[in-house]
Amino acid sequence: VIRPEPCCVCGSRIRFGKTAIKCCQCQLLLHTKCREQCPSLCTPRPHHHVRPHEGVLADFAPSTPPLVPMLVVQCVTEVETRGLTETGLYRVPGAEQLVREWKRKLLRAGGALPALSSVSDIHVVCGVLKDFLRGLKEPLVTFSLHPAFLRAADIPDDVASDTALRHVVSKLPPANRDTLAFLMLHLLKVSHSPDCKMDVFNLSRVFGPTLVGHSSANPTPLTIMEDTPRQCKVVARLLSLPPIFWRGFVETEQENLVPM
Hints:
- By secondary structure, the protein is mainly alpha-helical.
- It has helices spanning 70-82, 96-108, 122-134, 146-154, 158-170, 174-191, 200-212, 221-240, 243-250, and strands spanning 5-6, 13-14, 20-22, 29-31.
- The chain folds into two domains: 1-49, Wheat Germ Agglutinin (Isolectin 2), domain 1, CATH 3.30.60; 57-248, Rho GTPase activation protein (Phosphatidylinositol 3-kinase, Chain A, Orthogonal Bundle).
- Keywords: Metal-binding, Zinc.
- Residues 55-246 form the Rho-GAP domain.
C-alpha cells in the first residue's frame, strides 16, 4: 500500500508499506488478516470503479439512466416511506456506529442491497445517506464547477440567479446531475412536511457542506469559514427551482429508481 486506504471488511486503514489483498474484479481491498471474513462472492463492476468505500459519484452509479446510486435510492425510499413524520429529519444524528455499519453493508452488497426496513431508527438511514455523500472524493457539485455554483447563487436578481443555476446544473457529469435532481425532489418533500419541521433554511444548513463542499480536497481554514454560508445559499437556491426542472432529469426512466 502506497496511499493508506480503508479495509472493506473491518473499516480500519491499511497503512503505508503494508501488504493488502485486492480483488481484480470488484476492486475490494482488505487486510490479509481479514481474508477469512471477506464475502466469498463479489459483483464485477460493469465499468471502472475505484474502491467500494471511496470514489467519485459515477463510480457508484448504475449503467442505465437515471444515474442515481442504488444506495441513495434505497435510503431516500426508506426515509419517504416512514420518516416524513419524524421531527428534525437529517438534523438529528443517528448512532454513529450503526451509520458506519450500515454504510459498509450497503457498499459491500454489490447487486441486491439489504433491506433498510430492519433499521429501527430512521435517523440512522439519514446518517448513512449523508455519510455516503460526504465520503465521496469530490462533492456532488464537483470541484471544477464549485466556483460557478457559488457565483450563480450570489446573483442578487432571483430570475437571473435561477437561470445561471440551471445552466451550471446542466454542465454537471450525468451521474452528479441525476443524483442532485433526485435529492432535490426528495428534500422538497421533506421541507413540505409540517411534522419534520425542516424547512428550506434548515435543510440548506445541513446539506450545504455535504452537497456543495469546497473547490479542493484540502481547503484552508479561511476557505472553510468563507465557504460555509455560501454553501447553504447554493442549496437554498437549488431548492427554490421548480420541481418540474428536476423531474426532467429523473422521470425519463423512473421505473429504474425502484430499490432492489
